[in-house]
Structures are given as C-alpha cells and as structure tokens.
Design goal:
It is an enzyme of class 3 (hydrolase). Keywords: Hydrolase, Signal. Its EC number is 3.1.3.8. This is 3-phytase. This protein has 195 residues and is mainly beta. It is built from one helix and 14 strands; from the N terminus they run αββββββββββββββ. The protein has one helix at residues 2-14, and strands at residues 33-34, 44-47, 54-59, 66-71, 81-82, 85-90, 94-103, 114-121, 126-131, 136-144, 149-157, 163-170, 174-182, 185-192. It has a four-stranded antiparallel β-sheet with strand order 2-3-4-6, with helices on one face. A hairpin with a 4-residue loop joins β8 (114-121) and β9 (126-131). The relative contact order is 0.13.
C-alpha cells in the first residue's frame, strides 16, 4: 500500500497518465523510498515549502485514520530507505487530501496568511483543516459535505484578492468551497457548482 502511495504521488507530480487517443508511453518510475509503516492511503498531495516540502496523504485506517505528512527534503533518499514521517494527526478515517496556501492574505489576519492541509472524513463527510507543517487541527474550519467523493483539488485566484478555493468532485455532484478568514476565524463557505 505504501508503494502504491508513492507511485501515485509521483504520477500526480509528473502528470503521467494516458489520454484518450494519444499514443501510449511507458514511463518507469524509480521508487527509491517507502514509508516505514503500512498506510491505508489512496490520495496524495504535495505541500511546497521553502523550509521542508512535504508529501501529504490521507489515512483511511480504522485505528490510525487521519492525515500524514512525510518529508521530501533534499537530497533524495537513498534506494531502499524510508521516508521520514514529519507529522500525523489521527482523528478519523479520511478519504482525500490537499493543501492550500496563504489563507487570510490581505485581511489583516496573520500577515502573510496560513498554510493548511484539507481532508474529508469518511464516516460523516466533515471537511477538516490542519495547520501546516504541524498538522494541528483547526477546529473552527469545518464543513459538512455529504456525498460519495472521489477527488479534491485546490486553486488560488490571483485576480480576486487571493481567494483560495477547494473543488470537491463526487459521483453525482461537484462542490466549490471558499477558504477564508473573518473575525471569528477560518471558514469553509460552500457554493454548489452548477452544470
């Protein structure tokens, strides 16, 4: 399972997947490091930081469920070595994970803004936010999103005051969430995407 997480992470980072009608290209990915424990993860994201870039992954394990972060700092690990776990938060089984940057920029909240990891809980479909790089839960930034979700991505708009958006895709619907701060704290505002 840990090997699958790394291969999926490298495929996402390299954007390597076949498209319909395009010639198939074989890409060999040299996996040089794995996690030291088995992680029930099926979704990864990368957090780019000047101090220490991280590989984020959900954890759907019944006992260890939550979110995990592994160090991707240079130089690359030696073949056969393990990725160092930077932080983890075992809160509940989760399904997806992504990162958002600079929440609160330009609003007088925290100066340059705060970086967050976002995931969705499997049992109750609650969107959860965690401070990066520590993975400390952000209690006031939660939102219930009922549905069978299959993909989560983030986007930061430069033309609308650096608004940070999350896009959550499922079998029957897609949801857009605005990540913002106000006087009470961080919020996840929901706006359904119309076809």
């Amino acid at each position: 399972m840990a090997l699958a997480v790394l291969v999926a992470a490298f495929a996402v980072v390299l954007h390597v997947w076949a498209t319909h009608g395009a010639p198939t290209t074989v890409v060999v990915v040299n996996v040089t490091a794995m996690t030291d424990t088995v992680v029930a993860s099926d979704w990864t994201a990368t957090f780019y930081s000047d101090r220490e870039p991280l590989l984020l992954g959900n954890d759907a394990g019944p006992d260890t469920g939550g979110i995990r972060a592994y160090s991707l700092e240079s130089p690359p690990p030696l073949p056969g070595s393990t990725l160092r776990e930077h932080a983890s938060a075992a809160v509940v089984r989760t399904k997806l994970a992504t990162s958002v940057y600079g929440v609160g920029v330009g609003l007088g909240v925290g100066g340059s803004g705060k970086d967050r990891a976002i995931t969705i809980a499997q049992p109750d479909s609650i969107m959860l936010a965690f401070a990066l790089p520590s993975l400390t839960p952000v209690r006031d930034a939660q939102s219930e999103q009922l549905g069978d979700w299959s993909a989560l991505s983030s986007w930061k708009c430069r033309t609308t005051g650096n608004h940070q958006y999350l896009f959550l895709f499922g079998k029957r619907q897609a949801v857009q969430l605005l990540v913002r701060t106000d006087q009470q704290g961080e919020k996840l505002d929901i706006d359904a995407i119309r076809p």
